[in-house]
Structure formats: structure tokens, C-alpha cells
């Protein structure tokens, strides 16, 4: 077992009490997002004006505002209130780093499923999917039967993908085009951006049938249907077409080491000699990365698949070497996401 390299101060009773009350912190944030409070407070407003705009009475309004002030989401100013700098950047409509979809996903999916965390740890399975009855063993298999949760999931993934893609496309280039396979390409945001940037590139996306069905409209709207092919299927069972480049984005962290290694071997077989594989994953430093990776790992283990976790850079590089690749570089894309580029040997 490894631990984070950063030393932590001993837990205090005050910190313990805050931990016990932490569900109120999230639910207060969630309520504020549902009210769209931070969009409203991009311009300072008085308490009375806020109450009128939200349509709530004085006491609940005061609880909402007092709580948001203590959490640093809202600031006092000239007898009124305004969104804090971070809230204005991340929790308001049109904000450059809009994270509201992540809050909505936590409300619709993570929060109800997290009640099963004890069972998930005890039984070594993703017991959180018990909150979403249906066929299949993973969250992804069950989401189609739960439209509100599926919509929240899709919006969350598009938010994450948008921020990661904005940095990723500055780090990879395909000036000579070729055939690129995007495994589990989801809503096709990355694939669409790549064919837009590189006119000679042809992209194939493999993902579950219900996901590619929804993505097809986006591909048509982008005018990319002649250069972007969609295949509905299970990435673990589908035969990977011959390719010059293979991308795994936001996918390997979901699955077990054995499954990840199998996918990398399949990519090796599909690639031409000298072709490259691009891994875009949640990663943590080789020495450990604090509670953020733990929280994400609990989601993958207890809710999404029962297999995955946030792994270290070196784990992926070791697996790539074993599969016949030479890791070439690491690039940090966000505080929690990284890119590994590796070349196929032989």
C-alpha cells in the first residue's frame, strides 16, 4: 500500500465535525446551483432583491446566504451580496470554467449511489448501481433506463471532455492525417475537434450503441459524417480496425488492470508499426495525490464498474511497455488528467 507524499496535520475535533456535516455543504451548493444563485450574483444585490428574484421567504433565504458566505461561495459587499471570484468563474451561466454539470451529476447519480459505499467495499462490487435498477452490471449499462441520470451523466462528461480537450488538442498533432481509432469516444467532442483541425484525418469511434446513437446527431451537425465513422459495440469485444493512431480518453480508469492490459494489446495489434497510442486519463503522481484521486477512485469502484480507480503515471507506462509500446512523453492536462503518448514497436 502506498500513501500520499504530502504530510497531513493531525485531525482536529473541529475538522471531524466539519466532516460529519459535509453533506450539508454539498447540498447547500446544490441548492444554490438549482436556484442559479451565482449567475444572479455576478452583480451585487441586496438581500431583499435576492429574495424577490428567487421567490423564497426571509428565513430560508438567510440560511442559504449565510451558508454560502461561510463556504466562500458568496461574499458580503456594501450591505449586499455577490458571487465570490471562484463561484463566478465556475458556477455561473456562461462562466469560462462552468462546473454546474458536475454538481448536477453528483446530485442525480453520485449522491444516491454513494449511500451504498459500505456495501461496495464489503462485497467488492459497484453496489451503487443498486440505486439504478435495470439490466447490466455497470452504471453505463443501466443509465438508458434512467433518462434524468443519463442526461446528467452526459452533461458531466461533456463538461469534463471540453476542458480536457481544450488542452489536449494543443499537445497532439496529425498533419499527415491517417486513420485514428477513438475507443469509447462518447459524445464525439474530441473526434469532431480532431477532424476539424486535421483535414486529412479519418476517425472511427467505438462506443456502446445508445451512446453512438446520441452522438450521431452531433456528428451530422458538425458536417463530419464523411470523415467520422461510428461503430456501436462493446470495446472489449469489438475487433479494432487497422489504425495509425489509437486514443483511449476517459476510459481506462474505469476498468481493472487486466481489462486495461487487454485493451492495450488490442491497440498494439490494430496499429501499424510506429503508430502511436494516446492515453488520456485521470492520473495521480507516482508518489500519491491526496484525497481527489481517492474520491474519484471510490466513484469508479463503488458506482461505475466495481473495477477501476485513478492510477499513477508509472502504472500505465509499465502496462504500455509490456504490451509492446515505448512511452515517449507525459503531459499534465488538468490537475487530475494527464496524457501519455507511446509508440508501437516492431
UniProtKB/TrEMBL annotation:
PROSITE patterns: SAM_OMT_II. Keywords: Methyltransferase, S-adenosyl-L-methionine, Transferase. InterPro entries: COMT-like (IPR016461), COMT_C (IPR001077), COMT_dimerisation (IPR012967), SAM-dependent_MTases_sf (IPR029063), WH-like_DNA-bd_sf (IPR036388). Residues 116-325 form the O-methyltransferase C-terminal domain. GO terms for biological process: methylation. One of its GO terms (molecular function) is O-methyltransferase activity. Residues 19-91 form the O-methyltransferase dimerisation domain. Signal peptide: none annotated. This is Methyltransferase. It comes from Sphingomonas pokkalii.
